[in-house]
Structures are given as structure tokens and as C-alpha cells.
């Protein structure tokens, strides 16, 4: 890996700058087209008496990893194919690894895998589109 590609998490973060890291995890490694996110679930994420974590929180962390791998302003997930391979319990540390399969296109696929220890517990392909400018800067007053 080229040292110029490696940067400290959040130094050059262009997406999800205001995301709640307690809910979605923390970036532990980030390079061009790649990201790793560490996710440790909390008690507020428990869904039953078995101390299992709701799948929505697992998806949140994985999608944060995918967006961070692309790391382009004005991007958004338009589709995801996901596989939850194992339940996650309270205090389990899951590491998500994202790899953008295309680097310089408007539509990108990002493969994300989640690991608990060395066991794969999550697998997904996220489809992310990158816009030239913000898609929410529409002047609704002049649409009438």
C-alpha cells in the first residue's frame, strides 16, 4: 500500500461527518476505496432476553463502512444485498471491512464483510451512486 493513500481516520472524511459513532462504529483504517469500521454494540441495541443485537444496528455499521470506503461527497446508497450470517450479542466487537470494487465511476459497488474474531458474520454488496453536487439543493419555490 502506498503511504500517500493511507490517512488517519476522519482526516479526509468527506461523508458521514456528523454520524453518531456510538450507533455506527468507529473508523479504524481508511485508504482509497477501502475502509475498516469497529462496531461494539451497546445495551440500547438489545432486542431480546438473549442479549442479541437488532440487525438494523449491524446494517448501520456496515453501510457506514461502505460509505467510508467510497468517501465521496454527495454520495448515497441506492441498493444493498445483505446476508446476516450469525446473530451478534451484546459487547461483541465486529470489524467491518469495505472494499470499493470500482474507484472512479458514478455508480459503485462496495463489498463489505463483517467479522467477529476471525469468523465472518456479515456479507454484503452496497450499490452507491456519486452525484456531482448535492441532490438536495432543489429550489422548491420555483417548481410551481
Give a short synopsis of this structure.
With 144 residues, this protein is mainly beta. The protein has helices at residues 21-24, 55-70; strands spanning 26-31, 34-39, 75-84, 94-100, 107-116, 119-130. The longest helix has 16 residues, at 55-70.
Q: Classify the beta-strand content into a percent band.
A: 35-45%
Radius of gyration: 16 Å
Order of helices and strands: HEEHEEEE
Taking strands numbered 1, 2, ... along the chain, how are they ordered across the largest sheet? 1-2-4-5-6-3
List the total number of helices. 2
Task: Please mark out the parts with pLDDT under 50 across 5 or more consecutive residues, or reply none.
Answer: 1-10
Shape: globular
Determine the N-to-C terminus distance.
52 Å
Instruction: Give helix % range.
Output: 10-25%
Mean pLDDT: 82
List the helices and strands and how they pair.
Layout lengths: L20 H4 L1 E6 L2 E6 L15 H16 L4 E10 L9 E7 L6 E10 L2 E12 L14
Antiparallel strand pairs: 1-2, 2-4, 3-6, 4-5, 5-6
Detailed description of the structure:
It is built from two helices and six strands, in the order αββαββββ. It has 144 residues and is mainly beta. The radius of gyration is 16 Å and the shape is globular.
Main features:
6-stranded antiparallel β-sheet; 6 strands; disordered N terminus; single chain; 144 residues; 2 helices
